[in-house]
Amino acid sequence: MKITLGSAKIAVIVFSCALILTGCADNEIVSDCLKGHTYGFFGGLWHGFIAPFDLIGMLFWNDVTVYAQNNNGILYALGFLIGSGGWGFLGGKGASRKK
Q1: 30, 68 Cβ separation under 8 angstroms
Q2: How far is Cα 70 from Cα 99, in angstroms, rounded to an integer?
Q3: Given pLDDT bands bounded at 50, 70 and 90, which one contains residue 13?
Q4: What's the pLDDT score for residue 31?
């Protein structure tokens, strides 16, 4: 695939517009999110399983997030990765079949 000067200009314009428009996004006060229940490994696992549905929910509701801010760190992140299939644990033998 050959990149032309015209397509490079368009890519720079699109990237610049995206950067400018995201600068207008609201900032969230994190200290308000860090009160209450702290999510651990199993919370991350559950949030990883439901991440695709949360992503769709984020389009319609402002109070839906994919990743919990109030988590205990590495164990939550590990559970989230496993739950979302980020390491391929749930791929099974069907993912490696040759056609």
Answers
A1: no
A2: 44
A3: very high
A4: 66
Output the pTM of the full model: 0.51
Token pair 């995201």 in the structure block, residue = 22
Contacts of 39 (CB under 8 A, 6+ apart): 47, 68, 70, 71, 72, 76
Domain boundaries along the sequence of the chain? 5-26+38-87
Number of other CB atoms surrounding residue 64 within 10 Å? 13
Report in angstroms the alpha-carbon separations of 79 from 5, 6, 67, 85, 95. Answer: 44, 44, 11, 10, 22
- CA separation, residue 87 to residues 24, 50, 78, 80, 96 (Å): 34, 16, 10, 10, 14
Q: Residue 58 half-sphere exposure, CB side, CA atoms within 13 Å?
A: 9
d(CA 38, CA 32): 13
